[in-house]
Write a structure and sequence with these properties.
Length: 362
Amino acid sequence: MTMAGQGRGRRDRNRPGGSAVALGEAYDTALLDLDGVVYFAGGNAVPHAVDALGAARAGGMRLAYVTNNALRTPDAVAAHLTELGVPSEPSDVITSAQAVARLIADEVPPGSRILLIGGEGLRVALRERGLVPVESADDDPVAVVQGYGGPELQWARFAEASYAVGRGLPWYASNTDRTIPGVRGIAPGNGAAVEVVRMATGAEPRVAGKPLPPMHRETVLRTGARRPLVVGDRLDTDIEGAFNGEVDSLLVLTGVTDVAQLLAAVPEHRPTYVAADLRGLLTAHPGVTEAQVTEAQGAAGAFACGGWTASVGGGVLLLDGAGEDLDPLDGVRALCAAAWTEAGAGACGLDAGKALERLGLG
């Protein structure tokens, strides 16, 4: 069983870890994504999130909310969380706007003019770092910064960015998430907007948000976390960000990632732990152990967790269970170990259909 709290970083990525104590006890700070983890796109809380976060906080775990969305200010996010029943202060919220503002402030003189292509969250973050947001490429900016500005962001703003970048000014982006969830479905995110300027100029921006190191640096600086646990629903931002920061991670299955995608994950997208929802912070996590299979089963390399045994045979992920009241999540953990071990440094392409049906996830 993994010794929780030590940080697996880039080490064993071929099976989920285990913790003999609740994660809220093993780690001092939870670095929580918001969309799909704490609340849904419409703003309503994810089931069990409010109670689980309250219990984790009561147990001594610090809660910090880390988002790539640069539109809303920390004050607005904290107010929303408090309204949902998760009491929060603006200092509990870390955004990609803050990360990119620090990145810029480290490289330009105080009081520098920065062409802002984005919303209020980015404007506030620039001012916090002593920088002056301006609206036009003709306002003598020394750099350009681009962040999500909401669906109302006008096409003319992309033109301003292109004029300035085309003149050779340094270009920064809060994040490059190509999509963002909305009430009506998936909408273009800041990454899509960045692509517009990239195509017009041929330039490449410096990016701050998850999964890149500037966001992790911002988070650690603001929280002072010594044993952080990244909690998210996206493999390519939350979990990869934890991998890049060499800290442990918890994937919750309340957002965009499903079990089939988890099984196919490449090493940098493999979480330390997996849970159905944020109640996973309040429990110990069973470890995955190697198991023996008979030669007649025709499988090589088997892994057991909570009464389930997963293995690979004939290009298929196999799953057997013995005992009453088996937890499907333990079956997922065993399947992850079998799939990731088989894939090694690549992505698993094994057929998992029947195994997932057995877990009621097909």
